[in-house]
């Protein structure tokens, strides 16, 4: 497995990650999937509260396999809605289910609309930065299916250290966003690269 510096987060991340959106059939399937990922050298696991039992199953699997927390990177997400208390509860629940004291990365799950962007400016980002200051979150980013203009606008805020977006041979619309993120030394996470 190759590892790369994940932008200005300075995390050494495996070039392939295990996204757990679909590994939620049962705890045994998750454990087998995680075990195989670790054997291949994958050190980054991506999940979200909206992925059903993903966080719960992933946390159990990592504990059962005896994985050292310092040897893996965990990313979860928060939807762009709610006040500071709501965001805190989401992060605390994610940490509890993943059986960890902190999350390496948290992505705002889908900055897709003008309303989502407004949430960032109207307190959402301040709430996340507060949790980062307290050590519950180490790095902040965002995922998106939004328009290119919205993605570029979000990158330009300089709020974020990484971005999670679509880009592949038959879908290169986001090449300008990747260039903009790279200029700011953001980590770039491509989901569904072979879709």
How would you concisely characterize the structure shown here?
39% of the residues lie in helices and 20% in strands.
State the main characteristics.
195 residues; alpha/beta; TIM Barrel; 7-stranded parallel β-sheet; two-stranded antiparallel ribbon; 6 helices; 9 strands; globular
Q: How many strands in all? A: 9
Query: Runs with pLDDT <50, length 5+?
Result: none
Please give the share of residues in helix.
25-40%
Kindly report the name of the CATH homologous superfamily: NADP-dependent oxidoreductase domain
String of helices and strands: EEEHEHEHEHEHEHE
Detailed description of the structure:
This protein is of the alpha/beta class. It has helices at residues 27-39, 54-64, 84-98, 114-133, 148-156, 175-183; strands at residues 3-5, 12-14, 18-19, 44-46, 73-78, 103-109, 137-143, 162-165, 187-190. The protein has one domain (3-190): TIM Barrel. The strands form 2 sheets. A 7-stranded parallel sheet has the order 3-4-5-6-7-8-9, covered by helices on one side. Helix 1 packs across helix 2 (54-64) and helix 2 (54-64) packs parallel to helix 3. The mean pLDDT is 95.
């Amino acid at each position: 497995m190759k590892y790369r510096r994940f932008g200005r987060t300075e995390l050494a991340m495996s070039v392939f990650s295990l996204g757990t959106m679909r590994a939620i059939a049962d705890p045994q399937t998750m454990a087998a999937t995680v075990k195989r990922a670790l054997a291949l050298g994958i050190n980054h696991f991506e999940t979200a509260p909206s992925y059903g039992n993903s966080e719960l199953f992933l946390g159990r699997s990592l504990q059962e396999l005896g994985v050292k927390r310092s040897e893996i990177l965990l990313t979860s997400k928060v939807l762009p809605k709610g006040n500071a208390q709501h965001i805190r509860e989401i992060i605390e629940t994610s940490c509890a289910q993943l059986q960890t004291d902190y999350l390496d990365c948290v992505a705002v799950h889908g900055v897709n609309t003008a309303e989502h962007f407004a949430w960032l400016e109207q307190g959402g980002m301040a709430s996340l930065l507060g949790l980062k200051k307290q050590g519950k979150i180490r790095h902040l980013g965002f995922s998106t299916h939004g328009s290119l203009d919205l993605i570029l606008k979000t990158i330009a805020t300089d709020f974020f250290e990484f971005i999670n977006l679509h880009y592949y041979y038959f879908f290169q619309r986001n090449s300008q966003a990747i260039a903009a993120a790279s200029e700011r030394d953001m980590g770039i996470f491509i989901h569904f690269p072979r879709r």
